[in-house]
Design brief:
The complex is a heterodimer. Chain A is mostly helical. Chain A has helices at residues 8-34, 42-60, 63-87, 92-110, 136-140, 145-163, 165-175, 177-182, 187-213, 225-235, 240-262, 269-288; strands at residues 125-126, 142-143. Chain A has a domain at 20-224. Chain A contains twelve helices and two strands, in the order ααααβαβααααααα. Chain A has a two-stranded antiparallel sheet with strand order 1-2. The termini of chain A are far apart. Chain B folds into two domains: 2-129 and 255-278, Rossmann fold, CATH 3.40.50.2300; 131-251 and 284-342, Response regulator (Rossmann fold, 3-Layer(aba) Sandwich). In chain B, β1, α2 (41-56) and β2 form a beta-alpha-beta unit. The longest helix of chain B is centred in the first third of the chain and has 23 residues, at 2-24. The radius of gyration of chain B is 23 Å and the shape is globular. In chain B, 50% of the residues are buried. The chains are: A mainly alpha, B alpha/beta. Chain A binds chain B through residues 5-7, 10-11, 14, 18, 21, 108, 111-112, 115-118, 209, 213-216, 218-223, 225, 254-255, 258-259, 261-264, 266, 268-270, 273, and chain B through 34-39, 67, 152, 183-189, 191-195, 197-199, 201-203, 205-208, 217-219, 222, 226, 241, 352-354, 356-357.
Chain lengths: 310, 357
């Protein structure tokens, strides 16, 4: 074993890159759940975003347009979910699962002609001056734009939910849709917007996989990242900064265990692989013990169907 | 009365003809572990299926199921396929071994072919390719090309086939470069592009400048290309879209001749349970073109090794070889028998890491 071969700075930088897809998807899903909707279709929206982003980026040779297309693709699929669950009142769990399957199938259909093609390169942005700071510069200021965007998004979501009227209304809808309705808020419309926002974020996360992290298109390439994003929302007890922490922790342990293996650590890899999930369970147990169930922070109307006549 | 009897007669006739047609056609099924678009392992099996259709045309029908998880779900997919009237089913991953045996017991009239396993039955054949022969050629190129003397290996699962590949590559890298060191990362997946990319990056960041992979996607190739000064090898498929650099050569699986021969045997009624294990010589394993990124003398050396293996004059596992713990495995000039190779569960001397349980 030779741990000195692991450069902690490089390691931290790759953790940020590895965590970005699940971070984007998780922060989007958190907003959806804050509005009281449980969308289990994150995986489907991610992979749709991955393929839409890849196809458009290859066609236009512009990664930026690819990301925009990915956001639209994810949002479109989410809209489908929104119409089914909000207007046609279908079961959210079943519809979400169906959305995942649909997204996986749709993406391999769209991606048929794009297997084995290379994506246009997304350049790292070296923030002037800051990038030259020793140590911190390498970790924090030499990434591609999406890494900064994802962190900015977390901050924006936090600020909006905490300080703005829009955030207050969104939370009201998620906590008690009947009360929000009685106050005259358009519960369904607000939820549809939240669902589309979540879809757009998941789409961006998927595109980050296909355009930056892997970068290429292969069928089924999200390989369960959407489910991890869902778990992170619970892990974070529906709080934006904890979503960031959770995503970096998950991504961190994934990257770290590979690095430890590469350095020849004798610890069995099975334990390292299961550690993120163990930590999640541990955190959930600690948080739910001692205090009331409300301490977990789940929106009260999560997963419940709203109909104005009720 | 008259009309109903005509209808009944017509229905009967229709039923008969369709039944007759169904009997004429030999139905061949495939179970894949990844998507057909993985660009590697499953892609090549699917190429074999397409070659089958091209060869026999309308006299056969092929069906396939992709991304079937290894384990209980595979049993369900296999049962469905057998109930669907398949005459011959190829199960194309190691993890389908027990499901194949279990389902084969229930359908004695259906022939099964399991890739890379070692359990056979009256109606279950096994087939595999001697990928380790290709690994020997890769190991030689890797040992000659590395500048840091550190070679990264992305392994999938700790099963004999993967361990054989690591050993074979290591032996031949060591032979041309005594300072070489192997760093193995177990990804515990056959196909997960994001994880494979992370594994490749972890290896590159820790100073490995040659990456060998035993996982199926092209993600490690893309990671190496981004890093710039790292070489890779195509796995299962040529992966030539990454040639000439970082991909400098590849192992190509060519299943088509085998699939055609076995389907022919079912059609002729001559099918029997066999254990097939072919290598470079029989054409089941191909060495993809060695690109210009490799200097001419190394290329010639690698090609000489390939030809020696193909003709059978050289075996990749030839003594003197010791096991990792230092005990003698093969004496001078002795070659490994197929039984030991098929169940290989140890590293050869010199590899420093341990095989996970």
């Amino acid at each position: 074993m030779d741990l000195s071969v692991i450069n902690p700075l490089v390691l931290l930088a790759s953790i940020m890159v590895a965590s970005t897809p699940i971070l984007l998807a998780a922060i989007g899903e958190m907003v959806v759940e804050k509005a009281g909707v449980l969308n289990l279709g994150v995986e489907g929206m991610m992979i749709t975003g991955a393929v839409c982003g890849f196809v458009i980026a290859v066609q236009t040779s512009s990664p930026l347009l690819g990301f925009v297309a990915a956001a639209f693709g994810g949002a479109f699929l989410a809209l489908l979910f929104g119409v089914l669950t909000q207007y046609l009142l279908s079961n959210q769990v079943a519809t979400g699962l169906a959305l995942t399957l649909f997204g996986l199938g749709l993406s391999s259909l769209i991606g048929q002609g794009y297997i084995g093609i290379k994506a246009p390169v997304t350049n790292d942005v070296f923030i002037p001056i800051l990038a030259d700071i020793p140590i911190l510069g390498r970790i924090l200021f030499q990434h591609d734009l999406m890494v900064y965007f994802s962190i900015g998004l977390v901050a924006a979501v936090w600020a909006v939910l905490k300080y703005s009227r829009v955030g207050l209304i969104l939370r009201a809808v998620g906590e008690n849709h009947d009360a929000a309705h009685a106050l005259g808020y358009k519960v369904i419309r607000i939820r549809i917007f939240a669902i589309m926002f979540g879809g757009a974020c998941a789409g961006l996360g998927g595109a980050y996989l296909s355009l930056v992290r892997v970068p290429q298109w292969t069928e089924g390439m999200t390989a369960g990242a959407g489910w991890i994003a869902l778990a992170i929302v619970v892990f974070a007890s529906w709080r934006p900064w904890r979503v960031l922490l959770g995503a970096y922790l998950f991504g961190g342990v994934t990257v770290l265990q590979l690095n430890l293996q590469a350095a020849g650590l004798a610890l069995p890899v099975e334990y390292l692989s299961m550690s993120p999930y163990l930590i999640t369970i541990l955190v959930l147990v600690i948080m739910s013990a001692g205090r009331r169930r409300g301490a977990l922070g789940a929106p009260a109307a999560l997963g419940r169907i709203f109909h104005a006549s009720n | 009365m008259k009309i109903t009897s005509i209808i009944a007669g017509a229905a009967l006739a229709l039923g008969l003809t369709s039944a007759a047609m169904a009997q004429d056609k030999t139905k061949v099924g495939f179970i894949y572990v990844g998507p057909v678009g993985d660009g590697g392992w499953t892609y090549e099996h699917n190429q074999g299926r397409l070659a089958l259709e091209a060869e026999f045309g309308d006299s056969i029908e092929t069906v396939y199921r992709e991304s079937v998880p290894e384990g209980a779900d595979a049993e369900r997919a296999l049962t469905e396929m057998a109930l669907g009237g398949a005459d011959l089913i190829f199960t194309t991953s190691f993890g389908y071994m027990d499901p194949t045996i279990n389902v084969a017991k229930k359908f004695p009239n259906v022939k099964f072919e399991h890739a890379t396993g070692f359990k056979r039955a009256e109606n279950v054949s096994t087939y595999s390719a001697r990928f380790y022969e290709g690994r020997a050629v890769q190991g030689l190129i890797a040992g000659r090309m590395t500048k840091t003397n550190k070679i990264g290996y992305i392994a999938s699962f700790p099963i004999p086939e993967v361990i054989r590949g690591i050993n074979s590559a290591y032996i031949h890298a060591k032979k041309v470069n005594p300072d070489v060191e192997f760093n193995v990362v177990w990804a515990y997946t056959w196909f997960d592009p994001a994880k494979e990319a992370d594994a490749a990056n972890a290896l590159i960041e820790t100073g490995n400048d040659v990456i060998l992979q035993h996982t199926d996607s092209t993600a490690p190739q893309a990671a190496a290309e981004k890093a710039g000064n790292v070489i890779t090898f195509g796995q299962a498929s040529d992966m030539s879209e990454y040639a000439p650099y970082p991909r400098v050569s590849s192992i190509i699986d060519d299943w088509a001749p085998y699939y055609i021969a076995r389907t022919k045997a079912v059609m002729d009624g001559t099918w029997t349970s066999l254990d097939t294990w072919d290598g470079i010589g029989a054409g089941m394993v191909g060495i993809g073109e060695i690109s210009d990124a490799v200097p001419a003398d190394i290329k010639a050396e690698a090609e000489a090794l390939r030809d020696a293996i193909a003709s059978g004059e050289y075996k990749p596992f030839t003594g003197p070889l010791n096991k990792q713990d230092g005990s003698v495995w093969l004496a001078e000039g002795e070659t490994a028998d197929d039984g030991t190779l098929a169940g290989m569960g140890f590293y050869v001397e010199g590899i420093t890491s341990e095989i996970p349980n």
